[in-house]
């Protein structure tokens, strides 16, 4: 199916069909995951234990949908977006629980969350941060929906309503941000803003079978004008002495490491979603996503990396920023699994950062929403990569 899709996608005259489920995860992935869980293989079993003990993965979970979500205090409306990231994390975790166990009580709880938000949400407001909400929670909710797509207990009207809400509320903001950047020039917003909105368009395009939306995001990654395009994101390449590896300095290296690691988590999401539809963004620009992950990972595990001056909209960044160096962020399991395990490339620094993150988490594995604090940063990534991506 994958090779057929690649051939078809060369011709715009042909309407290609999407693989389902096929955003972050495929049916084949779930066969592997179920086998590891059934055999209690490590480290999958410990990750599964962490997931099933999450308060977000319980069938009793009750969502608190809003009509308008606010992220960023605009001086009038109180921020209420934690409801959105908590409920979205719950929908995703419950969907995984259903896919592994086939117990429909988890499926019912997951679709209830999605359908309740679909019936209620009409707008995302606040400050410019509303465009972080549209990106981050857009890709996450669409992934939960994509999982539940084939659940017979999800009433088709509710499924349609969910797709309509994702398109009208999230995707329209995603596109608006990528086109207009909230009234600023292309360089104003750091890469993570584009990246989360691109991840969202890919996921919503897949869930709603919208080829136009999906293609727009893929083309933007390849040749877009701003920081979320691969060629713009890469600031400098260096050859690592000894290994001969290419390390790529990313756009947020001079800002802080919390955002530099966030970028790599989001690049993983973008590339994985495209990969499952037959487009290998991981490989493009000579594995630039790996090369940038290696650079970020190497610095964040405590080794020196070279740096080239970057002219940001806030002024010249003459040194790499060590602010939040060593920050703990889930998401590198995906990158290690793809490049190291699947492609057999040397991802040693990415692996080292992944291990550092895991060693700081319960069970020594990658957790997800709820395992990294209660604030939004702990919910930027869907996590549980040790279970979901390791081969
Ligand atoms: C699975 O992992 C959990 C948590 O680490 C552990 O308590 C349990 O004994 C493991 N199960 C098996 C069968 O090894
Ligand atoms: C649609 O979803 C809502 C919210 O979960 C639920 O109350 C309603 O029963 C669902 N409709 C059908 C037909 O299942
Ligand atoms: C598909 O996506 C495009 C681009 O985002 C959008 O303009 C269009 O309305 C979407 N189609 C549907 C049926 O939602
Ligand atoms: C880094 O290397 C890639 C792959 O060869 C290339 O496409 C890209 O332009 C290089 N980036 C810079 C900033 O030189
Ligand atoms: C920033 O760096 C560039 C390139 O080195 C230089 O031309 C420019 O004058 C610098 N700007 C400031 C404000 O230092
Ligand atoms: C960052 O660098 C400064 C100056 O070298 C140092 O004092 C500080 O401890 C470093 N912080 C981190 C998080 O590495
Ligand atoms: C992988 O790269 C690291 C340095 O980035 C190097 O130390 C290690 O020897 C390499 N591993 C292999 C198997 O080449
Ligand atoms: C990482 O682990 C250390 C030592 O156990 C702990 O002090 C620190 O708070 C942890 N950091 C995070 C972000 O979990």
UniProtKB/TrEMBL annotation:
- Leader sequence range is 1-16
Can you quote a single GO CC term? Answer: periplasmic space
Which keywords does this Swiss-Prot/TrEMBL entry list?
Lyase, Signal
Record-level Gene Ontology MF annotations: lyase activity
An example of a Pfam family matching this protein is Alginate_lyase
Q: Alginate lyase domain spans which residues?
A: 77-299
InterPro entries on file: Alginate_lyase_dom, Chondroitin_lyas
Provide the protein name: Alginate lyase domain-containing protein
Species in which this protein is naturally found: Penicillium arizonense
């Amino acid at each position: 199916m994958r090779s057929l899709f690649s051939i078809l996608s060369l011709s715009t005259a042909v309407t290609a069909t999407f693989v389902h489920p096929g955003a972050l995860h495929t049916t084949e992935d779930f066969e592997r995951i179920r086998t590891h869980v059934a055999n209690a293989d490590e480290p999958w079993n410990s990750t599964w234990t962490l997931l099933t003990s999450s308060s977000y993965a319980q069938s009793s979970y009750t969502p608190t949908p809003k009509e308008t979500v606010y992220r960023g205090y605009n001086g009038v409306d109180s921020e209420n977006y934690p409801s959105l990231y908590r409920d979205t994390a719950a929908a995703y975790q419950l969907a995984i629980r259903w896919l592994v166990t086939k117990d429909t009580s988890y499926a019912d709880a997951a679709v209830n969350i999605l359908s309740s938000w679909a019936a209620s949400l009409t707008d995302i407001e606040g400050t410019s941060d509303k465009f972080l909400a549209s990106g981050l929670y857009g890709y996450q909710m669409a992934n939960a929906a994509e999982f539940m797509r084939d659940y017979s207990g999800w009433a088709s009207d509710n499924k349609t309503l969910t797709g309509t809400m994702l398109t009208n509320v999230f995707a329209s903001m995603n596109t608006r941000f990528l086109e207009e950047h909230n009234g600023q020039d292309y360089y104003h917003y750091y890469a993570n803003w584009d990246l989360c909105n691109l991840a969202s368009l890919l996921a919503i395009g897949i869930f709603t079978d919208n080829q136009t939306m999906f293609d727009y995001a893929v083309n933007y990654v390849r040749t877009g004008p701003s920081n979320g395009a691969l060629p713009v994101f890469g600031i400098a390449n260096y050859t690592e002495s000894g290994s001969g590896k290419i390390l790529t300095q990313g756009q947020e290296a001079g800002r802080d490491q919390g955002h530099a690691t966030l970028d790599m988590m989001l690049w993983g999401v973008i590339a994985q979603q495209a990969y499952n539809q037959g487009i290998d963004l991981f490989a493009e620009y000579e594995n630039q996503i790996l090369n940038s992950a290696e650079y970020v990972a190497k610095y964040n595990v405590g080794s020196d990396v070279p740096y080239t001056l970057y002219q940001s909209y806030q002024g010249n960044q003459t040194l790499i920023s060590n602010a939040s160096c060593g920050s703990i962020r889930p998401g590198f399991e995906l990158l290690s699994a793809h490049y190291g395990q699947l492609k057999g490339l040397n991802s040693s620094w990415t692996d080292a950062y992944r291990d550092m993150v895991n060693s700081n988490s319960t069970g020594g594995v990658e957790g997800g929403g709820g395992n990294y604090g209660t604030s939004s940063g702990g919910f930027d990534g869907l996590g549980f990569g040790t279970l979901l991506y390791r081969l």
